[in-house]
Amino acid sequence: MDTLYHQTNILVQQTQECFQMLETRPTNYQEIESNIQEKISVINRNCEKLDTLLFKLAPTQRQNAKMNCDQLKYDSRHLQAALMSWQQKRIRKQAAATEREQLLGQRFTANPELTAINIDYALQQQNSLNNAHQGVDEMLHTGAGTLESLRTQRNTLKGAHRRIVDMANTLGLSNHTMRLIEKRVGEDKFILIGGMIVTLLIIVIVIIYFT
Description:
Elements: H1 2-24, H2 29-54, H3 59-105, H4 112-171, H5 175-210
Helix pairs in contact: 1-2, 1-3, 2-3, 4-5
């Protein structure tokens, strides 16, 4: 049993050395991977034999021998997991290299459907811009009409103010009454100016938004 244990332990060490060969000689990976798998299979078979031989040992020797056998089983599982991890890593690298070569080898070809979609989208954008410009023109026209209307009202208020002053002078109204009238006219003037400013701000905001 000791001879079989030492032989199996040497196989474990040789298998570990094979993993180092995978790093230094990756071009021979198929041969090395096959050699590793074969050694792991031999290790597993030897462990089964060692389990059988355990029952032939004296009870005082059995515990120590079982610990050695369990260590070999652990090493075998570790080596098998390492081999699978290496193979998965290699497959991913090969797939990435193949995909990269395919992408580099592809020639660019125009897609008629994509081109048609781009043209339709450009036409829609142009129509939207035209509609926006038309809307801005209409807003400007409306704003100009509003300003003209406010200007007319301002002139009307000025004329009304002059007529009120003339009438007050003719009728001989008191200074207090005149001040009230002038105050009301001043308030109307501020309201008019405020309306003009608000209208101008709205027009400017609309122009900025649509451009």
